[in-house]
Design a protein that fits this description.
Elements lengths: L4 E3 L4 E5 L23 E5 L3 E4 L4 E12 L2 E14 L5 E15 L4 E10 L4 E5 L3 E5 L2 E5 L2 E5 L4 E12 L2 E14 L5 E15 L4 E10 L4 E12 L2 E11 L4 E11 L5
Antiparallel strand pairs: 1-4, 2-3, 3-5, 4-5, 5-6, 6-7, 7-8, 8-9, 8-10, 9-12, 10-11, 11-13, 12-13, 13-14, 14-15, 15-16, 16-17, 17-18, 18-19
Length: 263
């Protein structure tokens, strides 16, 4: 039995149940929605404070909440729970602060703070440099990253940058869609970009209002105020295709150009 007050001791652990449930998606960051993952265990080096009236546990010092192969680590974790009629507890919200890292066998998200809504299965990580890594894929942002478990979708906000095998796409907002490969590991297969979209190839800089990048084909389709710049020359139009595998950029539809002759 746990009594109210502070619980201390190295790597102290508590177990809590969780109500949310939906199908499992490979080895991704399904901390909330992995129905077969069992209870969530909370560990802390510097002790866990249990505020019974507020229904919250506060874990300090190398704090960690773990469920199966997914873990949330931070300097401080606040676990909000609800008591059931049968006396059991169900974790509904997890708040993390200080050197936050959420990890699974195939994905990692890092930032300064995080809020995990376990009932909605939505994670929001904030910080000056939030980063998502999934094998060959990397997405960064300077405001926040949202991870929607049930949609297998990540939304990066604030000068977001997506990298895949050296290929780079930048925008104010990037929406990445993930799925599991044959090995069960999560990877990005589609990226949607919004506001001030920039793609840099070896010879061109391409800008647009919006874009969609198909990772498998390597083709980025751009729309809205498209500009392709090569040295001092610039072409403009409404739509473009950029092959990030070959570096070839194509303007589609009516095209306007500014060509500077060599002196």
């Amino acid at each position: 039995m746990i009594r109210a007050g502070k619980l201390t001791g190295p790597a102290l652990a508590l177990s809590l149940g969780i109500a949310a449930a939906c199908p499992v998606f490979g080895q991704s960051l399904n901390f909330a929605s992995d129905a077969g993952g069992g209870p969530i265990e909370i560990f802390a080096d510097d002790g866990i404070e249990w505020q019974r009236e507020n229904e919250v546990l506060i874990a300090r010092g190398n704090a960690r909440a773990a469920r199966k192969d997914v873990a949330v680590r931070a300097d401080v974790l606040r676990a909000h729970y609800a008591s059931r009629a049968d006396g059991a507890t169900e974790l509904s919200r997890l708040e993390a602060a200080g050197d936050v890292k959420i990890s699974s066998p195939s994905e990692n998200i890092t930032g300064d703070t995080a809020v995990y809504d376990l009932e909605e299965a939505v994670l929001v990580v904030a910080g000056d440099r939030v980063r998502l890594d999934t094998g060959n894929d990397q997405i960064t942002a300077n405001q926040q990253m949202e991870y929607w478990e049930r949609k297998q979708m990540a939304v990066a906000r604030g000068r977001a940058v997506g990298l895949h095998d050296g290929k780079r796409i930048r925008a104010e907002v990037l929406v990445a869609f993930l799925r599991s490969d044959r090995q069960g590991k999560s990877r990005v297969f589609r990226v949607e970009a919004f506001d001030d979209v920039v793609i840099q190839t070896e010879i061109d800089t391409v800008r647009a209002n919006e874009g969609v990048y198909n990772v498998d084909s390597g083709i980025a389709t751009l729309t809205g105020n498209v500009r392709i710049t090569r040295g001092e020359n610039q072409l403009a139009g409404d739509n473009a295709e950029v092959d990030l595998n070959t570096g070839i950029s194509k303007l589609l539809g009516p095209v306007r150009g500014l060509l500077v002759p060599k002196k």
